[in-house]
Design a protein that fits this description.
Elements (H helix, E strand, L loop, with lengths): L8 H13 L33 H8 L17 H18 L7 E6 L2 H20 L6 E6 L5 H9 L2 E5 L10 H13 L4 E7 L11 H10 L3 E8 L6 H4 L12 E7 L11 E6 L27 H39 L4 E2 L6 E5 L5 H6 L3 E2 L8 E5 L6 H19 L1
Parallel strand pairs: 2-3, 2-4, 4-5, 5-6
Antiparallel strand pairs: 1-7, 6-7, 8-9, 9-11, 10-11
Helix pairs in contact: 1-2, 1-3, 2-9, 3-9, 4-5, 6-7, 9-11
């Protein structure tokens, strides 16, 4: 790891103090032209004594706006402190985790995976329109049926058709012949430009798509494509647990990646990340935002600098090796859980590098699933699966209580 190095609490506090000094102070700097101010003191007390020992809370009180994309061009000078820490976050993620070459990436802290996925589709749609004169009806989005709902949402917003590709029921993988048939059908309908969303851990199953399969089939059909990886859940675990993974920027087939810091990283909600290769994000420049000092290249526009600093604080509190230990603790708990399910002959799906275990619903009574907070595949009554995610708060004692109840059910069925 080149940049992802653990720092002491003293070092972290010092950096945040400096970032706040380099960010507009509404108490002492009377900026007349900004449509923002300090948080309302009728609700938010900014002089509480405990704030001196709470660097992140001080950041929220400072209320920095990280509008823009700070890996390219100019940025609003009033918030340069929080912007610098955001740049450090993006650099760690792009270079140390997803193996980008230096200065060959762009990215920003989004409001979540939904925004980041739509940002990718927006970039690609505009890229094909600007560089290939593509029409809306010549483009199509491809993703598996297990893909997050942000993709059909993006399809609707961008007026680009979307096709869901069936997966094998047991392996949750796209099969080459099925994909080839769908691509052939789309080509016959006049589709020339393909916007791909490949999953690095689907929301329900934790299944991981093979981006190279998409590339192989699409190249066989001679069409143009861009591949985005939705690593909203898996981005902070899969590249760490699977050291042989090729789902990164060393793979020439991959051009952008989504990560969610408010999932595995346990940052405040509303904290996702969009990463892409250089030369792409400019396709969504909003030229009309001329009052913004710099280029408005993001879907959200104004963004919380405090959320960016929250991600920075978490990453550098752990460092790579501290995070590696944490991830492996979760995987050990997940392994234990799967061993117990195997003893009970309970069917489930699990990618070996992930902390998601999805059980066949016919093995789990609905009342037990509800009691333990398992998430169903569908809430409309037509449910084949229940999901367990081994997060930081889920310890083996919690898993054991569920296993003990399931053992009683299995034993009763065998009588």
């Amino acid at each position: 790891m080149k940049y992802w190095i653990k720092q002491s609490h003293q070092e972290l506090n010092k950096r945040i103090d400096q970032a706040l000094k380099d960010t507009i102070d509404y108490e002492n700097s009377k900026y007349l032209g900004y449509p923002v101010s300090k948080l309302d003191e009728n609700v938010f007390y900014s002089n509480a004594p405990f704030l001196k020992d709470a660097p992140l809370l001080r950041t929220f009180i400072a209320n920095p706006n990280n509008i823009g994309c700070h890996t390219t061009g100019k940025s609003e000078s009033a918030f340069k402190g929080s912007q610098e820490l955001e740049r450090e976050v993006v650099r760690v993620l792009a270079v140390d985790i997803f193996k980008s070459k230096e200065e060959e990436y762009d990215g920003y802290i989004a409001t979540g995976g939904t925004e980041a996925n739509i940002q990718a589709l927006w970039v690609y749609r505009n890229y094909f329109m600007k560089h290939h004169n593509a029409k809306h009806d010549e483009m199509v989005i491809l993703s598996s049926v297990d893909t997050h709902y942000s993709v059909p949402k993006g399809s609707n917003l961008l007026n680009v058709d979307a096709i869901s590709i069936p997966v094998n029921f047991d392996t949750r993988q796209i099969e080459e012949d099925v994909l080839d048939e769908i691509v052939a059908e789309q080509v016959a309908k006049g589709k020339k430009y393909f916007l791909i969303v490949a999953n690095m851990a689907t929301t329900m199953f934790g299944s991981v798509d093979n981006p190279d399969l998409y590339a192989k089939v699409l190249e066989n059909h001679g069409v143009l494509y861009k591949i985005h990886v939705d690593g909203a859940f898996g981005g902070f675990i899969y590249p760490i647990s699977n050291r042989q993974s090729t789902i990164n920027f060393e793979n020439p087939n991959i051009t952008s990646i989504t990560i969610d810091a408010h999932k595995m990283l346990q940052a405040p909600y509303g904290t996702g990340v969009f990463l892409c290769r250089k030369g792409l994000i400019e396709n969504v420049l909003t030229k009309e935002a001329q009052y913004v000092d710099g280029m408005d290249l993001t879907l959200s526009g104004s963004r919380s600098g405090a959320n960016a600093i929250a991600v920075w604080l978490i990453l550098f509190s752990y460092g790579y090796y501290g995070w590696f230990e944490k991830i492996n603790t979760l995987l050990l708990r997940t392994n234990w859980f799967c061993e117990q399910l195997d003893k009970l002959n309970v069917s489930y799906y699990r990618d070996p590098y992930m902390n998601i275990v999805t059980l066949r619903s016919n093995h789990v009574p609905a009342d037990i699933a509800h009691k333990h907070g398992l998430v169903p595949e569908s809430h409309d009554g037509n449910n084949d699966w229940y999901k367990v995610i081994v997060m930081d708060h889920v310890e083996i004692d919690d898993l054991k209580r569920f296993i003990d109840e399931l053992t009683t059910v299995v034993a009763a069925q065998e009588v």
